[in-house]
Amino acid sequence: MASTVLITGASQGIGKATSLQFAHNGYNVIMAARTVDRLNAAAEEVKAFAPSVTAIPTDTRDPEQVRKLIDQAIAQYGSIDVLVNNAGIYSSGPADSFSLAEWHTTLDTNLWGYIHTIHFLLPHLIAQGHGMIVNVSSSSGKVPIPYLVPYTTSKFAITGLTQSLQSELSPKGITVCGIYPNLIKSNFMERAFFPGKDQEDAIARRKQLEQVLNVPVVEKPEDVAKAIWNAVKHKKTDVMVGSANASLISNKLFPDFLQWAMRRTFKNSDKDY
Description:
Layout: E1 4-8, H1 13-24, E2 28-33, H2 36-46, E3 53-57, H3 63-77, E4 82-85, H4 100-128, E5 131-136, H5 149-169, E6 174-180, H6 199-213, H7 221-234, E7 238-240, H8 244-253, H9 255-266
Parallel strand pairs: 1-2, 1-4, 2-3, 4-5, 5-6, 6-7
């Protein structure tokens, strides 16, 4: 019988690429995302390769929607073997420019969305005595990034969540893995927001990120999907993807210089005092 994977944020980018990766390797695929039309279109692509595909529209920020997602998935497939937490949002700007609502948007999506799926699925994984939770984080969950403070906060929290869960759950047969890519060349920009000192600053931040994403060495969603599959196949618990390794090494060897360089890169119109 085929194993089953549940992937959030599955309608595009890393989530869609990961759905295709697991489909090609014989998994039943449960795809969850907020945008119904885009989710259904992605599921149609995955159906060409997977034994079975189910698309379930879900906003992971809403615990009731997540509870229904997990209940439906277990009822349909009997067992969920792998959870890939991937739904997320990017935000960039000076720390004092973020409203509390923008803080909540970032943390509710990037952190609480992961907590919700884990909360409702974990009793099932413990009862069956096996399974894997994969949390897609970011290199900014290992390396502090100025001007991405809410985003970095959410990603550092995911690192702590992942590592503490791995320590607790490994004796119970459950593997918990963190995946840490750098920026990925995908359409996440559609959901990103850029608070700034003014409109001009916000526009400049968006354009700056667009320029970075056009650099040839920036990884693609398929690179992360392959890293996730490799982690599941070999039960890895900590995976730096591609150029993220360089960020981690630079932070260990030259932390002061790296932070100075990132402040110069991301500050835009923010003033030094």
